[in-house]
Amino acid sequence: MTTEILKAKTNQVAYKLLHLGGADYDKDKDISIKDALATGNVARDFGIEEWDWPQGVGLYGLYMLYEQNGDDSYLKFLEEWFRGNIEKGLPSRNINTTEPYLTLLQIMDRLPQKEMYEEMCMSQADWLIHDLPKTGDNGFQHVTSGIGDRNGVILNEGQLWVDTLFMAVLFLQQMGNRYNNPEWKAEALHQVLVHIKYLYNKNNGLFYHGYSFLRRDNFGGIFWCRGNSWFTLGITLYLEQAVDLDEGTRRYILDTFKAHAEALRGCQAECGLFHTILDDPDSYEETSGTAAIAAGLLRGVRLGILDESFKACADKAIKALCGCVAEDGTVLKVSAGTAMGMDSEHYKNIGIRPMAYGQALTLIAFAEALKG
């Protein structure tokens, strides 16, 4: 894969992300919550305009591309996105609607009305600590947005989801760094350790999608690709910023990541992609999880956490991802939003749609590959 081809693909994917359009909340009224969660057909998730996790991941991909190439058009888009959403009014506070704050934190020093954005970020960090519902062991309960009601929530009582590490913990940890707030940094670390404790399978090195403190189990015991990829990529972003960890804690997290990376290498399909259920070759191959895994492995090598042999696995994934970019820049084979499932069929039945996070995670993977 030449640098020229990779740059061209990156530009195509970025252009499509900027022009994904908006979510149509009215469509949520035409489908039951049960059916929406079973298929991933949730209107709020589509497009780039709504303030929620798919769009928040999309923004972070654009920010990382902006950091790499300095294209001010991306910064202009981000500025207008945040201003427009604030004027419209933000949805309910929950884990998933925390994700856009991660990008806002990165760019607010370059924006007008910095003080307003700073106050928003500090308020959100404080809310995570003091007002977000907690599970057993004081984990962050994975509260999500309501379906058909952007001001409502789905509590997911007593549930830990691996998604939380990327959607909320990264933001809290970086807020702790920026403001030298030991409470925020300590809580972010606590959440990393709690999620490893309940979601990591020591027998195979992979992560379960979730854990229920009410059921006392890992739901369907599924090793979901994108869920694992939130850890693969997210933990490298966490470790890069968490410079004041004590050596014992850092080694514990590093050892977990290394075992996880080794497990992922054994799950890769011959074509270079990963299946939406990592250990089930009968499940469909999926690009968003593949992209975040590739990005995490490349970052691991670049940071000196993983040895150079993992680059071959990541490069194979990058080549496969390039083959999944349509001429108009749409990243194909992206699974829609995925609620917790009790069996493999749930994950296999999630629809495949162009999604902001599919575009963004592919951008992040390509950006990491271009760093060499």
Summarize, please.
With 372 residues, the protein is mainly α.
Features:
372 residues, two-stranded antiparallel ribbon, single chain, 14 helices, 6 strands, mainly alpha
Please, could you describe this protein's structure?
- The protein has about 375 residues and is mostly helical.
- The chain is about 55% helix and about 5% strand.
- The protein is built from 14 helices and six strands.
- It has helices spanning about 5-20, 35-40, 55-70, 70-90, 100-105, 115-130, 165-180, 180-200, 225-240, 245-265, 285-300, 310-320, 345-350, 355-370, and strands at about 145, 155, 160, 210, 275, 285.
- The strands form three sheets. It has a two-stranded antiparallel sheet with strand order 1-2.
- Helix 11 (about 285-300) packs parallel to helix 14 (about 355-370).
- The radius of gyration is 19 Å and the shape is globular.
- The protein starts with a helix and ends with a helix.
- Give the class from helix and strand content and strand pairing: mainly alpha
Largest sheet, spatial ordering of strands: 1-2
Give the termini separation: 12 Å
Output mean pLDDT.
95
CA gyration radius, whole angstroms: 19 Å
Proportion in helices = 40-55%
Proportion of strand residues = under 5%
How many alpha or pi helices? 14
Low-confidence stretches: none
What does the largest sheet look like? Answer: 2 strands, antiparallel
Number of strands: 6
Basic shape: globular
Strand/helix succession: HHHHHHEEEHHEHHEEHHHH
Q: What topology emerges from the helices and strands here?
A:
Blueprint: H1 3-18, H2 33-39, H3 53-69, H4 72-88, H5 99-107, H6 114-130, E1 144-145, E2 153-154, E3 159-161, H7 164-179, H8 182-199, E4 210-212, H9 225-241, H10 247-265, E5 274-275, E6 285-286, H11 287-302, H12 310-322, H13 344-348, H14 356-370
Antiparallel strand pairs: 1-2, 3-4, 5-6
